[in-house]
Amino acid sequence: MRSLVVLALVGLTAQLVDGALGMGYGMTSTSLLLLAGVAPASASASVHLAEIGTALAAGVSHWRFGNIDWHVLRRIALPGALGAFLGATVLSSLSTAVAAPWMAAILFTLGVLLLARFARPLGPGRRTRAGARLLAPLGLVAGFVDATGGGGWGPVATPSLLAHGHMEPRKVIGSVGAAEVIVAIAASVGFVLGLGRGGFLLPMVGALLLGGLIAAPVAAWLVRIMPAQVLGVVVGGMILLTNARVLLALVDPALIVWVAVYAGLAVAWLMALTLAVRVMRRVAPTPAPEPQPAPV
Description:
- This protein has one domain.
- Helix 1 (2-21) packs across helix 8 (169-195) and helix 1 (2-21) runs parallel beside helix 9 (202-225).
- It has helices spanning 2-21, 25-35, 40-64, 70-91, 99-118, 132-149, 153-163, 169-195, 202-225, 228-251, 255-283.
- It is built from 11 helices and no strands.
């Protein structure tokens, strides 16, 4: 019972992060299951089954708060579902360790771009929409990585869309989160075909689902009220810290190097956040003066 309560808390925390930042549920939940000794395919299968419910709750919440761009959702969801199905049925039993450093390097670069982007003014309200030539291959790759790695839909799709054009961060996060429902369903179908129903650990699925359902509305509300500048820097810093571990592990440096790298990243993140807050305050609209009574 205690382990299920812990899993429910993990599901709550993971969904809170995922719903607010557009990433993190799969990576957090799958890492815990792997740490507990669950086979990689069963861990990914169980997380994706729970993710159907949590992503649906998050999608409804994002819809109610106006965080979804339906143009983006339609063009990224179906390729994402295809990629997730292929990843689950063909590569669920294979290790993704070889691809992990390359993906970490790409995401780390995107994190740097996000910090640089959102630490300065975004421009006078210009908005562009990502086209099908970006969304279709992005969805396919993100869905494939998500199924084979037990998580990755948000970390691949969200920073890529944030780094492209001038789409509002809350719209990116809401659209990617809502599309994850279809991606999770496709991945689960692929795992059923590849592993059978015995590949799903239902008690763990239920605990993760319960925690995620509680957190979904809170996360959707949070992403709606957070300023674009701050939200973009938060996402960028999270990507840097998460993927630095994978890149450092390739060379296995001394402890002092680990500490120095993480300290440097933390300082850079704090500086970018400070600049973003200053920009946000500088461009905030000045309240209109109160009307004065007419002279008698």
